[in-house]
Amino acid sequence: MNSKKINCLKGDDEINNIEFIVATDLHYISPKADVEGELIEICQAKGDLKQMKYSSQIIDALIDEVIKHKPNGGLIICGDLTYNGEMVSHVDLMKKLQRIIDKGINIYVVPGNHDIKNYNAYKYKGAQRIPIKSVSPKMFKQIYYDCGYKKAIYKDEHSISYIAKISDDLWLAMLDTNLYQNNNWKNPVAIKGELSDSTYEWLEEHLKEAKEKDIKVIAVTHHSLVDHNDLLNKGYTLEDNQRLVELYAKYDVILNLSGHLHIQHIKPGYSKTVKNRKIYDIATSSLVVCRNQYAVLKYEPQKSIYYKTRILDVSRWAFEKGILDNNLLHFNYYSYNYAYSQTYKKIYFELLRRNLSEYEAKMMSSTLSKLNPAFFSGTVVEIYRIIEVSDNYKVWSLVSDIFYHKYIDSIMKEKKYDHNTLRLSLREDDGSFGDVIWNKK
Ligand SMILES: [Fe+2]
Predict the structure, then answer these.
(1) How many Å apart are CA 285 and CA 419, to the nearest integer?
(2) 84 CA distance to ligand 1 centroid (A)?
(3) Ligand 1: distance of its center to the CA of 261 in Å?
């Protein structure tokens, strides 16, 4: 067999390109844990952007999309599969994912900080919140055995990281960056993440092997490789992240896929040891947050890696299923309005406490409520001009000391970038390896 041919594909072995679907932060909760939909009310009341009311349908729509698209590389999930690591949610989610595996499509998962040993795992029933079982790392591996662990060519002994062989010239490094070991009733869920020295050693050994054999590696972590936003980085960016940037740079890893932030954002990390080397981190937005995106990642050997998001077509899915729920049938509209109104109610009452008139508070809330869904879906570039010239935006100068003012500034700062598309060169013959190809078509 030609060494460059894919040995994992089922079907047309003439095609060397490999496609993946990337989705993250599904935050699924089983009806066994959210018995009467109480959690939905709780999330709505606290202004959470996650659409818990429809998370099950959104995930089913994604699964049908994956089956329809049949990506020959498989589905990659960058962690936070469950709401708060409930064992019943993991088990029920796996039952849903099984439909993909039954169609011969591979799945590769890494855990997120919410998934393992989470002391916030509760069963919600009426006014009651009853602690229920979460999962250990060993149980996580067992439940998702068919989602990467079974076919892994290397497994880390010190974490549940693994390496999956996709083809003769492409591996995925699926890294467990979570710090669940120290979770307890007082600190129920660690937000921050890091890789241990032992995992670094394990990873380096295999990245070295990959480089020697001219195998490309795409890495996947739950935590961000770089700071994506001035305010949202503590706990989100991996601790000592430059160490991983340098390791990737040394072994020619040019792309890391992450989740955790729930926003859609692309940013490079810069190596200080390998000249002109950038490593891109793509934070894919949460599937259950407006615009309910996933991404298609295409690996074209010797040529490029291409990443492009798509909006999950929940409306079409609901129509095809004969579902009569109007929110599902007009899901883009519902989803945007949900994000808008959740942001609005969170900010409006805080502004009223600031001695602002009701009129001013309304103007300011409306600006942020438009900007926030755009920030989460990586589309600020599409609306920033309208925001900038609006009177509503100018009113924000009245309260420069408030967190949300800094938040808006941090979003507007990166207004001109497209965070939904990236094409990186894999060509070594012209010296462009690792560079962005600006003609993204
Ligand atoms: Fe998450």
Answers:
(1) 10
(2) 9
(3) 7
Domain layout of the chain by residue ranges: 18-315+418-425, 332-412
Mapped onto helix, strand or coil, the DSSP state of residue 31 is coil
The DSSP secondary structure of 43-74, one letter per residue, reads: HHHTT--S-GGGHHHHHHHHHHHHHHH--SSE
The tokens for 36 are 């009467």
| Cα→Cα distances 152→22, 166, 207, 271, Å | 18, 10, 15, 29
Residue 384's Cα: distance from chain center in Å?
Answer: 24
Say if CB 46 and CB 307 are below 8 A apart.
no
Among residues 115, 50, 58, the alpha carbon closest in space to that of 81 is found at 115
372, 341 in Cβ contact below 8 A?
Answer: no
Three-state secondary-structure class, residue 250: helix
The answer for residues whose C-beta is within 8 angstroms of residue 358's C-beta and 6 or more apart is 352
Has residue 4 got a pLDDT over 80?
no
Q: How far is the CA of 252 from the centre of ligand 1 (A)?
A: 28
Per-residue pLDDT tens for 349-390?
Answer: 888 888 888 998 999 999 999 999 999 999 999 999 899 898
Distance 80 CA to ligand 1 centre (A): 5
- Total-model pTM: 0.94
Confidence class for position 416, pLDDT limits 50, 70, 90: confident
Domain 18-315+418-425 in CATH 3.60.21.10:
yes
DSSP 422: E
Beta pairing class for 162-167 and 154-155: antiparallel
Distance 286 CA to ligand 1 centre (A): 7
Exposure string for 17-36, b = 16+ CB within 10 A, e = fewer: ebbbbbbbbbbbbbeebbee
